[in-house]
Each structure stands twice: as structure tokens, then as C-alpha cells.
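A protein record in our archive is deliberately plain, so that people and models can read it alike. The record that follows is passed on verbatim for readers who wish to inspect the format.
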Amino acid sequence: MVVNLYFPNPSVLPARGFGYLLPRSLPFEQNPEHALGVVFDSDATIGQDEIPGTKVTVMLGGHWWDGWEAYPDEEQGARMAVAILQRHLGVATEPYAVRVGLRKDCIPQYTVGHHSRMAQANEALKKFNGRLRVAGSSYSGVGLNDCVRSARDVVMGLVQGSNDRTGLEFFDEGNLPITSQKKRA
């Protein structure tokens, strides 16, 4: 669930910056809403609009809500976001405007064996001789930068006329992630 909050006062937050993430190790008493993180949109997206004030996005749920049959409604989501801001940042002001949206399964979370599955997919895609290539968050990174990079890599392969590109070259046998490589003596 994503909750966007707007406060007319441009100085509601006690700190400036991008925002913060909440680790799984945080005690339940400090995160009963199951928040994932808070983005200080006013700082993170300076110049995006001309409306003065403080804009904040609170992300709730994610892996915490896996297996839930029902999710909080918009009113509950708004209350949860306000509670997070009050508890963590001391924001006592009520927001002027709130927008709540439920986003199910929006950020891929790779499971064990992802690297091997992608290596197999890379081999399968090679049979198309460059006519089928993939890019996006389901393959090699969930962030916007990862998606842009993978799309760029695919396009560069097309421009260069390479027929052996799949978008999954990184997963070839020799390109193991750092955590899988043996330490050098």
C-alpha cells in the first residue's frame, strides 16, 4: 500500500533527505503498521511541481502482508501512515490531503535459485538469435535504474546488430553474483 500525504507547511519534517527504510529487525512496537519505508518527496523530487509544502510517501505492507486475505482499506491505510510519521518523526500535524493506493505484488522479490533460472532462460532465449530479448524488474534488478540499464543494454545490442544478446547475458555461467564467488586466498 502506498500512502501519499501533503502538508501545507514546508517544514513539517525534522530532517531533510530522501527518506528512510525500516529493517525487518525493527521491534513490532516501533512498526505495528508493517511499514517498509518513508520517502520525503519534497526533498527527493525537488522541482517536480510548484506547490509549496511537505510531501511524503509512506509504503506499507510488502512481505509483511504476504498471505493476508484482506488488506487495510484507504481510511485505515491513511491512519497507519499518519501513525508512522508521528511515532518515527514526531509529526503531530494532520495532513491536508491524503491519497491511498493498494499495489499488490508491485516490486519483485527474487527467490532462492533466481540466478540459475535466469541462466536457463538466457540459454532458452539464445535459440531466437536475438529476435527475442528481455528487460525489466523481473530479471536483473527491481529499481528504476536497473530497469533503465537493462533496457539500454538491450537497445545497444540491437543497434550493434548483435544476434547473441538476450538481455540476460549477465547470468551466463561465468558471471556469478559476488555472494556466490569463492574468496581468493
Observations:
- Confidence is low (pLDDT under 50) at residues 178-185.
- Helices lie at 41-44, 74-89, 114-126, 137-140, 144-159.
- The longest strand covers residues 54-60.
- Residues 74-89 form the longest helix (16 residues).
